[in-house]
Amino acid sequence: MSQKKDTIARRLELRKSIDEDTGCWIWNGAWNSDGEPVMRVDGKIRLVKHVSAWLFLARPLGSPDCVMHRCNGGKLCISPDHLFRLQSPKTAARLAAKLKMHARGERNGRAKLTEAQVLKIIAIVHDPMLTEIDVAEKLAREFRKPLSPRVVADIRDGRTWTHLEAPK
Ligand SMILES: [Zn+2]
Questions:
Q1: 16-23: long-range contacts (C-beta < 8 A, 24 or more apart)?
Q2: How far is the CA of 155 from the centre of ligand 1 (A)?
């Protein structure tokens, strides 16, 4: 970690308390009008979840990354283990639409996926904290019917299926 990151990480450390039961890092510092933890970095007010993703998940700080919470600590939790990143809301929506089209086109009796399920898959396959094996195990746990590996790979890689693409 660079010296600059180190200094900021120490400031973040001073403002958090760990919930022993949930592992949440609860922010004790300032928050904005949306109730989101904020801190000043290089003279700019930043969302602490973005700073946390930058420090601990190697996400770029300046980009409008979509960092989501996945615990019950709500907005005040800034633990990098409890954050995950969607590529972007737009990409997520595009992938979800594509997956739904594919699910409709399946003729092997697999259940049609709901939007919530698709979003769950997207969250799992894009979780930077999970290994490939973790992802497979988590998908198997979350979905009782087996998912088509092709469906999952398409979500993960954002691949285009030409036979399903609308003509441009
Ligand atoms: Zn949490």
A1: 16/78, 19/73, 22/71, 22/72, 22/73, 23/71, 23/79, 23/81, 23/82
A2: 26
